[in-house]
Structures
1.
Amino acid sequence: VQLQASGGGLVQPGGSLRLSCTASGFTWRTYNYAWFRQAPGKEREGVSCMTSGSRMTMYADAMKGRFNISRGDAKNTVFLQMTSLKPEDTAVYYCNAPTLNLWGQGTQVTVSS
């Protein structure tokens, strides 16, 4: 039972990245999923979440209009499409299945010129 996050990297301000979180070992369609991030010296904060059945999505205010969470059912994957990236988006991004209290290992996103 695990979540595997990937897709981080170095990007210039204004650029885009797509993070992926692949689930394995459980019936992933029945659960909600979320993305969190943690910048150096700061607490972990919520970025976005998506419910299983209704596919309702929510975003932190700082991410609205720039980030999009989606699911790829065929690939057991949750995506986080990030656009118009800013230096303050630099952090380690974690995917999470809240009901299972299951976390991915984190993927580093660095926004810098």
2.
Amino acid sequence: QVQLVESGGGLVQPGGSLRLSCAASGFTFKSYGMSWHRQSPGKERDLVASISSGGSTYYADSVKGRFTISRDNAKNTVYLQMNSLKPEDTAVYFCKFRRTVDYWGQGTQVTVSS
């Protein structure tokens, strides 16, 4: 069955960096686009970044220039490198792929605070 497992979240000071990973299984990873989303308490889940099966990327304006999405098809893993983190980046981060329906991971908490 499809499984997405995020890791790499934690507590970091403003200006710091984190790299999130999402390990995928149960489908042909290299054939699908993947995306990262985030959700803060009381807010909707928003798209942060996406990467197509061919490697094309998209970033939300709020993270452009600070975050980088990448994928390693040999490891069935998608990454989100987050630099210059701000308190407003605090959220639970989820990875997702869509095959008829959306499949989500369980999320990983990122807290940016001094």
3.
Amino acid sequence: EVQLQASGGGLVQPGGSLRLSCAASGFTFSNYTMSWFRQAPGAGPEWVSSINRGGGSAAYADSVKGRFTTSRDNAKNTLSLQMNNLKPEDTAVYYCTRQLDYKSRGQGTLVTVSS
């Protein structure tokens, strides 16, 4: 059974930073591209970033490019999202997914950016 659990969210002021983590289990993590999505209150899911199997290449939504960095540790089956210069519009529940399959998301983590 695919299990994905995001953590590390919280309340942060605009301009602050957070680092999210995602623990993966139930599949061979290193065989899959992994992604981050987010869903703001009252909105649909938004793709944030994807990283290839080896971790050497990542893509980002324009809204986060230059501020967010995705990485992975295949030895520990973990995915990370470093978020810098956070803005109020980054407020959302963040999920990690296997490839671009939003249905594979597990528990998300809430990020609230507010002064």
4.
Amino acid sequence: QVQFVESGGGLVQPGGSLRLSCAGSGFSLSDEIMTWHRQVPGKTREWVATLFPGGATFYTDSVKGRFTVSRDDAKNTMYLQMSSLNPEDTALYYCRIHGSTTWGQGTQVTVSS
């Protein structure tokens, strides 16, 4: 059974950094196109980043140059390194296999002074 567990969220001041983790089970993360998304209450879920099996990465414009997605194949885990955070990054962050309907519980990121 495919499952994801996101972690690493928290409260951080503007300009700060966080690293989110997405631990996968029931599949090999390195074989899949993986994506990060985020959602603010009352708004639709937003795509943030994509990581291809070969290592190519793509980002939504608002996070380019600030966020970096990577993975550790030995741990079957994907990461989202976030820096220069601002209040507009506050959201519940999720990971998933591209095109899948399976989502984890998400991890909350709050950027506030």
